[in-house]
Amino acid sequence: MNRKIPKKVYDFLKLNMENYPNSYNVYSSMGQYYERLGDKIKAIEFYEKAVTIKEYPETMNKIVELRSSK
């Protein structure tokens, strides 16, 4: 994988969090980012933040799935 791609994705997601701090999608996307990087702890953290804004069953399932695979 191109090493610059994850950095650019992170920068974009961070900018979105700054501009849209109350958006479910911003935190869910950051959770997906960390999940793809293999950082389960950070992924769970962002998924949990997302569901505090809006509860989606799919996101709740992701949290349960990641916790059980630790």
Tell me the count of domains: 1
User: Major β-sheet, in short?
Assistant: none
What is the correct CATH architecture?
Answer: Alpha Horseshoe
- DSSP strand (E) fraction? under 5%
CATH-assigned fold name: Serine Threonine Protein Phosphatase 5, Tetratricopeptide repeat
CATH class: Mainly Alpha
Question: Would you mind describing this structure in some detail?
Answer:
The protein has one domain: Tetratricopeptide repeat domain (Serine Threonine Protein Phosphatase 5, Tetratricopeptide repeat). It is flat and about 30 Å long. The mean pLDDT is 92. It contains four helices and no strands. Helix 1 runs antiparallel to helix 2, helix 2 packs antiparallel against helix 3 and helix 3 packs antiparallel against helix 4.
Secondary-structure map:
Layout: H1 4-19, H2 24-37, H3 40-53, H4 57-68
Which terms summarize this structure?
80% helix, 0% strand, single chain, 70 residues, mainly alpha, Serine Threonine Protein Phosphatase 5, Tetratricopeptide repeat, 4 helices
